[in-house]
Amino acid sequence: MTDDDTYSTADFFHAIGRQIKVLRERAGFSQKELASRVGYSEEQISSIEIGRRTPQPDLLEVLDELLDAGGLLKTVIPDVVKAKERPRVRHPDWFKDYAELEAKAVELCEFSTLAIPGQMQTEAYARAVFTNRRPILDEETVEMRVQARLARQEMFSKWPPVLLSVVLWEPVLRQPIGGREVQREQLQRLLELGSLRSVEIQVLPSSCEAHAGMNGPFTLLTVQGRSQMAYFEVQHLNRLITNTEEVRVVAAKYGSLRAEALTRRESAGLIKRLLGEL
After folding, report:
1. How many independent structural domains does the chain possess?
2. Three-state SS for 275?
């Protein structure tokens, strides 16, 4: 497997996924049952089995014992670690620089008014977003974009974890992107992420008459050893801001938005109520 052979890397993870599926079925577990045993979601197990999500070394350790694999899964851990370092997925050129910074971030603050932030999206939600993109993307590109988006979620499993603060405009939660079932799964995913100690999710109510984010969504990003940066993105146009004064203004806006938003507990309650309505 060469460093630029992304197809072979993808094949490698597909093969591991198929092995896990065979072992799971032999042990008599459904995806849902296995997920509950290892602390993953059913969607995550499904994604691993079809090769779209990279299996973490610690998960392979647990699965080897749980599924009585006899060391089969443990033996591939060194190869998995090496393969994860290779460029398995590709971001659009205009997004690459930010993606590299995000992967190194120690803290992220996001204000979202259009969709669930990419690193928090379920696979089905992400696919619905890219499938409905205009101009239309071909199937291969859609899959590449979905994989790239899912790869960003490794921030939730690394240590120390990224400190993530998100303020979501309420209509984002109510929009059934991909349909009601996709919406339901996405809301459940938000509750799951919101229970993590490193993640704070707040909802800005649609009843809010005015707020500091009227100019649109943005991200504040901090990388170890560097000053905080701000990032804006709209219609495939993006801008990374490093000027200290400009970043200070954006940070002040975010502080105001958090003050206007529901508390973390109130936000979780709202998401649960929306789930109950579906």
Report:
1. 2
2. helix
Decide if pLDDT at 5 tops 50: no
Cross-strand bridge partners of residue 64: none
Which of 87-91, 176-180, 213-217 has the highest mean predicted lDDT (pLDDT)?
A: 176-180
Given a contact cutoff of 8 angstroms between Cβ atoms, the answer to whether 64 and 74 are in contact is yes
Within this chain, do residues 69 and 98 fall inside the same structural domain, yes or no?
no
Write down the pTM of the prediction. 0.69
Do both 201 and 132 map to the same domain?
yes
What dihedral angle (degrees, nearest 10) is formed by the CA atoms of 40, 42, 45, 49? 180
Q: Residue 4's pLDDT band (boundaries 50, 70, 90)?
A: very low
Same domain as 103, residue 51: no
Q: Which domain holds residue 64?
A: 6-84
The answer to whether the bond into 217 is cis (omega within 30° of 0) is: no
Give, in order, the Cα–Cα distances in Å from 57 to each of 144, 147, 192, 252. Answer: 23, 19, 22, 40
